[in-house]
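Lecture notes, continued. The same structure-token format from the folding unit now serves as the input rather than the output. Read the line below as a description of shape only.
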């Protein structure tokens, strides 16, 4: 294992602060998950009370509750990555410079790439530990239904990719910075640009660039749809990549509960030819009409047969999945950032090679 990472991991987890912060994180994550469960149960009971199922909505709408809890947990984890990783990675190299210990690393037998990679591993270790500690909470939505193991794995994989990208950019900022305060501020600015700035660029792409192909619009499932167009700025945003990997946007479901993914799923559906307003409605929550056929005596059986998901329909894809494009972008940004950071850590050009010599002993 990288010696820089080993040394910093030993120093980080040797203190009392690490287990305390880990315990607080788990307690807060558990409390938020329990709050999401209470909100989902209350919303399900309220939605089904009008059709004679008051008090048992949480039983009939377990799938919708599972999806809601899963999406809340993943949005919380991605937000935690955005706010924790820059603060951890920003002080790695500039902190060594302030303590005047960077020269010791420069004259060691490690290359500049090994130093940078070791700093990245050590800075990401803490947030990855927090994510691993929160992973058992994802069992709850899987047991409730509506969420598969593949969706959980896809979401965690995209979460890891976003962590590595933000950590790599923060280390590059740390290698260039002259002070710890400047490194932390610069890292958070870059993280905000990569995450929230891309949403502003996406809004600009909606307004300024080519409009939808409304000339060839047609109706599918009662909704107007055309060939659409690619939204290139959507490739950059880690939230969109995670949501695309953890939810099937081509299967449009009108759920009982409002989804935290709804604004992002509207963007993903726009790539498939729907206007943003229509896409938002398609991904929105389900409202039960008093004149609906679901109010008949077979409402309960219909509800169970449809796995607590109403008016489900699958649309044909116009474009392939977004998540692999996001992963490719994150890999390129991480590689460039680490390479640029290694250029700022100068090491001797000629490495000293230590050769082991055998001791020759002879019998006296």
């Amino acid at each position: 294992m990288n010696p820089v990472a080993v040394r910093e991991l030993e120093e980080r987890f040797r203190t009392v602060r690490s287990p305390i912060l880990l315990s607080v994180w788990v307690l807060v994550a558990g409390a938020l998950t329990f709050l999401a469960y209470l909100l989902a149960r209350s919303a399900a009971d309220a939605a089904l009370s009008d059709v004679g199922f008051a008090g048992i909505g949480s039983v009939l709408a377990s799938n919708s509750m599972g999806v809601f809890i899963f999406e809340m947990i993943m949005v919380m984890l991605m937000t935690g990555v955005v706010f924790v990783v820059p603060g951890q990675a920003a002080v790695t190299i500039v902190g060594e410079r302030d303590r005047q210990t960077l020269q010791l690393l420069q004259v060691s037998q490690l290359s500049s790439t090994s130093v940078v990679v070791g700093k990245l591993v050590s800075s990401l270790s803490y947030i990855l530990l927090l994510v691993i500690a929160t992973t058992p909470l994802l069992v709850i939505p899987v047991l409730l239904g509506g969420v598969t193991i593949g969706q959980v794995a896809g979401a965690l994989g995209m979460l890891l990719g976003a962590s590595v990208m933000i950590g790599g950019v923060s280390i590059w900022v740390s290698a260039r910075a002259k002070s710890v305060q400047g490194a932390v501020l610069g890292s958070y600015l870059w993280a905000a640009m990569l995450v929230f700035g891309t949403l502003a660029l996406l809004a600009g792409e909606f307004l300024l660039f080519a409009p939808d192909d409304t000339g060839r619009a047609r109706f599918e499932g009662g909704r107007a749809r055309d060939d659409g167009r690619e939204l290139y700025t959507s490739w950059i945003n880690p939230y969109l990549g995670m949501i695309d990997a953890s939810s099937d946007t081509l299967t449009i479901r009108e759920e009982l509960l409002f989804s935290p993914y709804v604004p992002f799923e509207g963007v993903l559906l726009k790539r498939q030819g729907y206007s943003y307003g229509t896409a938002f409605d398609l991904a929105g929550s389900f409202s039960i009409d008093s004149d609906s056929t679901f109010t008949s005596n077979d409402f309960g059986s219909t509800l169970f047969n449809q796995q607590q998901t109403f008016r489900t329909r699958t649309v044909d894809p116009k474009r392939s999945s977004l998540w692999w494009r996001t992963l490719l972008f994150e890999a390129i940004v991480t590689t460039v950032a680490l390479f640029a950071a290694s250029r700022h850590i100068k090491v001797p050009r000629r490495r000293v090679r230590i050769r082991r010599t055998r001791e020759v002993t002879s019998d006296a």
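Point for the exam: The first helix runs from residue 3 to 13.
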